[in-house]
UniProtKB/TrEMBL annotation:
Protein name: AGAP005693-PA
Keyword tags: Leucine-rich repeat, Repeat, Signal
Domain of life, per lineage: Eukaryota
Gene name of the encoded protein: 1276366
Record's signal peptide: 1-21
SMART domains: LRR_TYP
Length: 437
C-alpha cells in the first residue's frame, strides 16, 4: 500500500512537472527581436523549459536581461528555428553541455560574457556551424576540451579573455580556419604551443596580454599576407622575434631585452610599442623600413643619437619618455623630414640645446615635460623649426633669468608652450607662460 502511494505521488509530481513545465514567453518587436526579462531556469529545468513568442518561426534575436539561467535550454533553438543572435550576457549560466547547440543551425552570434562557465566540454558548440561571433569573456573557464570548437568553420571572432585558462590543448583551434580575431588576455597561460594556431589561416588579430608567458613564438605567424596586430603585453617575455608580415606589435611590461626581425626582404611593421621593458638602446631595435610609430618609453636607455631614428626611413612618432637620458646627441649630416613627434618627457635633462635637433626640421611636437631642465637653449626657433606647433615644458625647473632668451624665441614663433599657474610648484612664478624660480 505504502509503495503504491509512493508511486502515485511520483507520477503526480511527474505529471505536474510536465503540465507546468516552465515556459518563457516574449513579445517579438518589429525588428524580429525579443527580450526575456527576469527569466529563471534552474538546473533541473534546463531540458524541460519551453519558449513561446508570437510568430516564433521568424524571430532572429533573443536577449536575456536580469535573468538567472543555469544553462541555455536547447528548446530555444527548436522554437526559434531562424535565431541568429542570442545575448545571454551576465545571466548566471554555469554550464554548457555537449551539443547544447545542436539545433542552433542559423545562430551567428552568441554572447555569453560575464557568466559562471567553468569548462567547455567536447563538441560544445556542435551544430552551431554558422557561428561567427562567440563571446565567452569574463567567465571562469579553466578547461577547454580539444574538440570544443569543432566544426566552427565560419567563426570569425572568439573572445576568451578574463577566464582561468592555464593551458590550451593542442588542436583546440584547428578547425577555426576563418578565425580573424582571438582574445586570450587575462588568463594564466604559461605557454603557447608553436602549432596551436596552425589551422587558423585567417587570423589577423591576437591578444595574449596579461598571461604568464615566458616565451611566445611570434615568428610562427609568418604568412604570405599581413597579420595586423599582436598584443603580448604583461607577460614575462625577454625576447621577441618579429616576422616580416606583422604590422603591429604591442608588448608592454615584459622583460624584453632583445628584439629580432626574421625579415630578409623588408618588413610590414608599422607600429612597435615596447614601453616598460629592459632595452638599453634604440639601436637594439632592428631596422623596420615601414615603421611609423616606435614607443620605447620607460626602458633603460641612457644615450640617444638622432642618427638612430634615421635608420627608420618612415618614422613619424618616437617615444623615449621615462628613460635615463641626460642628454641627446646628433651626428646626422643630412636632415630627416619624416620625424614629427618626439617624446622625451620624464628623463633627466638639466640643460638642453634645441639646436641638437637642427637636422629634424619638420618636428611638429616636442615633449620635454618632467625633466629637470633649468635652461633650454635655442637660436632661431622659428627658422629652424618652422612647423613646430607645440613644445611641452611643464614640470621642469627653469631659472627665470635664463629663460628670457627662450621666451623671446617662443614669442617670435608659432610654437605654443604656455603653462598655467597650476603647472607651477609653490615656490615658482609664472612669467610669460613659463614656470620658473
Ligand atoms: C548584450 O547584453 C548586454 C546587457 O545584458 C549589453 O550590454 C550588450 O551590449 C549586449 N550585446 C549585444 C551585442 O547586443
Ligand atoms: C588586449 O587586452 C587588454 C586587456 O583586456 C587590453 O587592455 C588591450 O587594449 C587589448 N589590446 C588591444 C590591442 O586591443
Ligand atoms: C624582395 O622584395 C622585392 C620588392 O618588394 C621583390 O621584387 C623581390 O622579388 C623580393 N625578393 C625576394 C628574394 O623575395
Amino acid at each position: 500500500m505504502v509503495k503504491l502511494w509512493a508511486i502515485v505521488v511520483m507520477v503526480a509530481i511527474a505529471l505536474l512537472r510536465s503540465t507546468f513545465a516552465k515556459q518563457l514567453s516574449c513579445t517579438m518587436e518589429l525588428d524580429r527581436s525579443c527580450s526575456l526579462i527576469g527569466a529563471k531556469v534552474s538546473s533541473d529545468e534546463i531540458l524541460t523549459t519551453t519558449f513561446a513568442s508570437s510568430n516564433p518561426s521568424t524571430l532572429s534575436t533573443v536577449q536575456f536581461a536580469r535573468s538567472s539561467l543555469t544553462g541555455i535550454p536547447p528548446a530555444m533553438f527548436q522554437t526559434f528555428p531562424k535565431l541568429e543572435s542570442l545575448n545571454a550576457t551576465g545571466s548566471d549560466i554555469k554550464q554548457i553541455q555537449s551539443r547544447n547547440f545542436a539545433d542552433a543551425k542559423t545562430l551567428q552570434s552568441l554572447y555569453l560574457r560575464g557568466n559562471k562557465i567553468h569548462d567547455l566540454p567536447d563538441v560544445a558548440f556542435f551544430g552551431a556551424s554558422r557561428l561567427q561571433t562567440l563571446d565567452l569573456s569574463d567567465n571562469a573557464i579553466a578547461t577547454i576540451e580539444s574538440t570544443a570548437f569543432k566544426r566552427l568553420r565560419e567563426l570569425k571572432t572568439l573572445l576568451l579573455g578574463s577566464n582561468s585558462l592555464t593551458e590550451l590543448q593542442p588542436g583546440v583551434f584547428d578547425d577555426l580556419s576563418d578565425l580573424e580575431r582571438l582574445e586570450l588576455q587575462q588568463n594564466g597561460l604559461g605557454s603557447i604551443d608553436d602549432r596551436l594556431f596552425q589551422g587558423c589561416h585567417s587570423l589577423t588579430a591576437l591578444n595574449v596580454s596579461h598571461n604568464a608567458l615566458k616565451t611566445f613564438n611570434v615568428a610562427q605567424f609568418e604568412r604570405r599576407w599581413s597579420f595586423d596586430l599582436i598584443d603580448a603585453s604583461y607577460n614575462k617575455l625577454s625576447v621577441v622575434r618579429i616576422p616580416p608580415n606583422l604590422r603591429q606589435l604591442v608588448a608592454i611590461g615584459n622583460g624584453i631585452r632583445t628584439v629580432e626581425s626574421t625579415a630578409t626582404n623588408g618588413s610590414e611593421l608599422i607600429l612597435l610599442k615596447l614601453p616598460h621593458n629592459k632595452l638599453t638602446s634604440v639601436d637594439e631595435v632592428p631596422v623596420f623600413d615601414k615603421l611609423i610609430t616606435l614607443d620605447l618609453s620607460f626602458n633603460r636607455i641612457r644615450e640617444f643619437d638622432f642618427r638612430s631614428a634615421a635608420r627608420f626611413g618612415k618614422l613619424v612618432l618616437l617615444k623615449l619618455d621615462g628613460n635615463q637620458l641626460e642628454s641627446v646627441s646628433n651626428s646626422l649630416t643630412a636632415p630627416i623630414t619624416h620625424l614629427k613627434y618626439v617624446h622625451l618627457a620624464d628623463n633627466q635633462f638639466t640643460h638642453l640645446d634645441l639646436n641638437v635637433l637642427r637636422t629634424v626640421p619638420r618636428i611638429l611636437k616636442l615633449d620635454l615635460r618632467r625633466n629637470q631642465l633649468e635652461r633650454l637653449a635655442v637660436t632661431d626657433l622659428a627658422g629652424s623649426f618652422p612647423v613646430m606647433v607645440r613644445i611641452m615644458l611643464e614640470g621642469n625647473r627653469f631659472r627665470c633669468p635664463d629663460s628670457r632668451p627662450l621666451l623671446k624665441e617662443l614669442k617670435e614663433s608659432i610654437t605654443a608652450y604656455a603653462m598655467t599657474r597650476n603647472d607651477c610648484r609653490k615656490e615658482e612664478n609664472l612669467i610669460d607662460g613659463i614656470c620658473c624660480s
